[in-house]
Amino acid sequence: MSTPANDAGLAVTGIGLVTPAGSGTAATWDGVCAGHGTAAPDPQLAGLPVGFSCRVPGFDPRTQVPGARPWQYDRCTQFALAAAHEAVTAAGLDPAAWNAARVAIVLGSAAGGVGTYEEQLRKLGDAGPRAVSPLTLPAFLPNMAAGQLAIALGARGPVLHTATACASGASAVALAALLLSAGACDIAVAGGADAMVTPLCAAAFARMGALSRRHDAPDRASRPFDADRDGFVLGEGAGVLVLERAADAAARRVPVQARLVGHGISADAHHPVAPDPEGRGLRLAVHEALRSADATPQEIDHINAHGTSTPLNDRAEAATLARLFGAAGPSVTSAKGVLGHTMGAAGAIEAALAALTVKHQLVPPTANFRHPDPDAPALDLVTGRPRRQTIRLALSNSLGFGGHATVLAFRPAA
Q1: Is residue 1 pLDDT above 60, yes or no?
Q2: One of 54, 166, 185, 201 is an active-site residue; which one?
């Protein structure tokens, strides 16, 4: 699925981030450029097979979430509201003055308010039904981050939730682009949020064998594309972008961070959780993103890879990129070495990082990479320190359980 080619693309006029590297776009960008892992022992996961995670540090909803009653929201929604507030402010938009009927909200999440669900289920088992909060359903239903954001901003256009597992945030950005291209809105606030660092999610992923068990060095546990990778590190956070038509942004005379010029969405139809070793879904999504961007593979200078640090995903993604771009392919990085895997938020966070990469013409390094995988094709992986580079076109790859693949294409603002 893709939109027709558009030379101007869509303007990214605002970015908001809440990640394990810190709250705010500047803190996250500085953190990923520093290239140090954020994973640390997590007291809330004590006694589980994996007892460390990538948490958002020092997050206080009382000061960071707009509105008078942030305690009513699940942590996932709190992250979404904080990131969206930053993005809308950065875009120079005033919700009190915009045409609310022409503003769309599209947010993705893999699990919604799973923390609330687990907490209330414990209360039900321990103390019976009268202990269950009447706010449970509004807090944990997956669409409520989008719904609460629409209420907070007074947005009355399309308000939608995407659920494509770990591609959810990227899928939300692509869907927002479709809405703008179809004329269904004039402004789209789009992204993803998840707060899946919970006992149930951690135990379930550990039982699948998906998590790293490097307890001796948690900050070095997430190591995308490294030969010694043994799984991902569970993370949390949110990323939100404000998208507008380029002409509308120009008329408002606001700075443009980058241009979203293409996207592709596909599936590999292979397996519920394992990636297709041939990378057919990702290849199709890349081709669709290039077609809608009216670009060729030779124009791609950089790829923000999905790069989970799991043996199967990284090997399949590396093989796919080598097949698409050849031995002298574009530079590649994965933010998950620093941030861990923020699940449904990852695609939106990494889309924001790709936009910042083309804005600054600077590629953040892949943290914790030490040894190339002898069973995977070599990539031009950026490691150690950021790389100054001319970037004409960058892709951001996102993959998810169920075979989902979403690829977003960004060009510099000018």
Answers
A1: no
A2: 166
